Amino acid sequence: MLKPFFQTLHPEAGCDEAGRGCLAGPVFAAAVILPTDFYDPLLNDSKKINEKTRFRLRETIQQNALAWAVAKIDAGEIDTINILNASIKAMHQALDQLSLPPVHIIVDGNRFKAYQTIPHTTIVKGDGKYASIAAASILAKTYRDDFMMEAHEKFPQYQWNSNKGYGTLSHRKAIAVFGRCELHRESFKLKEL
After folding, report:
1. Does residue 168 belong to any structural domain of this protein?
2. What is the pLDDT of residues 101-125, one digit of tens each?
3. Are 73 and 86 in contact (CB under 8 A)?
């Protein structure tokens, strides 16, 4: 069961990203501040629940969160500043958009750069431990999936409707045949087919 908060000061924002390991598309990040009484038994790390549940949870999170925001950094900027910096920048941009400033930030993973003067804690596999990070993982993942589904309409040859830009065999084969498009990350190396 997910813990509601990392510490007792409130409001606490959870942050996570989606799409860090993809060959194409932006990296998305979300920041979420949940109320102290928030509970949903289905809430978990976005990778551990199915698509239908993720989208249902997105509605619940957006309706009940004290504040939430989503941001993205495009492929071109990822190539310029690298994926770690892009992920952190997207989290900072999501935090910028929150209507309620947090007093503490918890972040999935082990790397983060200080945001303003607000203390933060990085938590490895935090999206499976804390509700606000899990909520952020749901928002980042579902908004990114929406983006990739739209991008699929323009570039159907890469099958982003099923692989969402990750380096699946079918995606890598499509790159071998059609080359890359403007949404591909040029700095990401392709594994051999």
Report:
1. no
2. 999 999 999 999 999 999 999 999 9
3. yes
Give how far Cα 64 sits from Cα of 8, 22, 25, 184, Å: 20, 30, 29, 35
Q: Helix (H, G, I), strand (E, B), or coil: what is residue 48?
A: helix
**Distance between CA atoms of 157 and 2, rounded to whole angstroms?**
39
Domain CATH code at residue 40:
3.30.420.10
> Would the pTM count as exceeding 0.70?
yes
* Phi, psi angles (nearest 5°) of residue 165: 95, -5
Interatomic CA distance for residues 188 and 193, integer angstroms: 15
| Structural domain that includes position 71 | 12-144
Asked whether residue 112 is domain-assigned, the answer is yes
Domain count, the chain: 1
What value, to the nearest 5°, has the Cα angle with vertex 82 and ends 49 and 28? 30
